[in-house]
Amino acid sequence: MPKRANETDSGLDLYVSETTVIEPQTTVAVKTDVAINLPYGYEAQVRPRSGKLLKTKLRVALGTIDQTYHKEIGIITDNISNEPITVKQGERLAQLVIAPVSYMQPVEVEQFENESNRGAYGSTGE
Questions:
Q1: For the residues of 31-70, what is the DSSP string, one character each?
Q2: Given this model, what pLDDT does residue 126 score?
Q3: Which residues have a Cβ under 8 Å from the Cβ of 18 and sit 6 or more positions away?
Q4: What is the arithmetic mean of pLDDT over 94-109?
Q5: Residues in CB range of 10: below 8 A, 6 or more apart
Q6: pLDDT in tens, 56-72
Q7: In terms of Cα–Cα distance, which of 113, 114, 103, 98 is closest to 44?
Q8: How far apart are CA 67 and CA 86, in angstroms?
Q9: pLDDT score, position 122
Q10: Alpha-carbon Rg of the chain, whole angstroms?
Q11: Nearest-CA neighbor of 59 among 43, 72, 73, 76?
C-alpha cells in the first residue's frame, strides 16, 4: 500500500511487489500490485525517489496516470549501467504524487497580438 514517510510529504512511496533483476541497458516496468481510482479532475504522477538514483545507474521514468486508468501501476525503469541491478520486494523505488488537472482546450491562432519578444528563452535577461 503506498504511504507517506512523513505527514507533509507530497508523494506516497511506491513499493516493489516482487524482486526483479533489471538487466544492463534494458527498460522494465517493475510491478507494484497497486491500482487506484482517481476522482474526476485529478491525475497521478509516478516520480523517481532520489536515493536509488544517487546510488545506482537505475533510472525511474516519470509517468502520468490519467483518471480513467484503473490497471496496475508499473514503475518504468531504465538500467543504464553495464551490470544487472536487483530491486527487492518491499523496496521503495518511486513515489506517487496526486495532482489536480486543468482541462482547458487549446485554441489555434493565426498570429500573436504582439510578435516581439513574446516570452522566448532568455527574453527576460540573463
A1: -------PPTTEEEEEEE-HHHHHHSSEEEPPEEE-TT--
A2: 61
A3: 31, 89
A4: 95
A5: 97
A6: 999 999 999 999 999 99
A7: 98
A8: 31
A9: 65
A10: 19
A11: 76
The single-letter DSSP state of residue 3 is: B
C-alpha cell at 123: 527574453
Tell me the Ramachandran region of residue 52: left when phi exceeds 0, alpha when psi lies from -120 to 50, beta otherwise.
Answer: alpha
Question: What is the arithmetic mean of pLDDT over 93-115?
Answer: 89
Q: Which residues pair with 47 in a beta bridge?
A: 95
For 100, the grid coordinates are: 489536480
Q: How far apart are CA 37 and CA 4, in angstroms?
A: 18
Domains and CATH numbers, the chain: 12-100 (2.70.40.10)
Dihedral Cα 108, 64, 59, 87, nearest 10 deg: -170
User: From CA 46, how far away is CA 98, in angstroms rounded?
Assistant: 9
Question: Taking the complete model, does pTM exceed 0.85, yes or no?
Answer: no
Contacts of 12 (CB under 8 A, 6+ apart): 2, 3, 4, 95, 96, 97, 98
Report the Cα 88 to chain-centroid distance in Å.
19
